[in-house]
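Table S5 (text form). Sequence records supplied for joint modeling of the two-component complex.
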Amino acid sequence: MIKALDQNQSRELLRRERIGRLGCISEGVPYVVPVNYVFDGECACLHSLPGQKIEAMRSEPRVCLQVDEIEDELNWKSVLAYGIYEEITNQHERAEALNHLLARFSRLTPVESFIAVDATAPAPIVFRIRINRITGICEGGER
Amino acid sequence: MIKALDQNQSRELLRRERIGRLGCISEGVPYVVPVNYVFDGECACLHSLPGQKIEAMRSEPRVCLQVDEIEDELNWKSVLAYGIYEEITNQHERAEALNHLLARFSRLTPVESFIAVDATAPAPIVFRIRINRITGICEGGER
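The corresponding structure-token record, covering 286 residues in total, follows.
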């Protein structure tokens, strides 16, 4: 039986997980990529090198972040957070957001460090998804 | 360093995995859900109860299936298969597709059996995604 998760259950799942799938629309068709994120209760914070997903979100900022916990076909939870793409360009806010991300994903630090010393590498884009709606469903027992 | 997967690597990943994230467009915004699938080299075969994703794909049949293998932030592969939603309504084809799915996901059998004996339950929709383009990227070592 598939049941709804309530808002608290959905938000807790978003807070405790680290990997999600970002859904956006690229040239009229759906585009989905795995991402690392941090959810602070209002926004999901992410970073990415420039590329197709950044171009897609700049052009159509209504995006979603899908996060799940799957044990097997009959025991799973999935949360879908809808929101608006916002690029973080202010230097202070950008540094704060990067610190927030790197505190959670310490292994990513070398990438940013590498970029800092390689002037030819493109700067990573730091962005948030300002969440305006969250839905969650589950099947099977509690984990 | 993020690198491209070639077509063979991408197709192998689609064949060996069982869980993907289906991306579609629902009322103008991206919609992503985890799904079980079987890939036969041309199509991904899936089933679902009626609901938002079926309505979305009937209205906008250009969809994608994203499948990944993630070890950690620096070691992962992700494949994105673009294709067209096709509902399987012919009874013979539908039975064949369901058998194909149930052979791979034997634990799903009770759901279909349950539905078969409960006339009030909605019949599951069986559908394929006819894949027309596959891209794949990876970072880090080979698994």
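Note: Chain A has one domain: 2-139.
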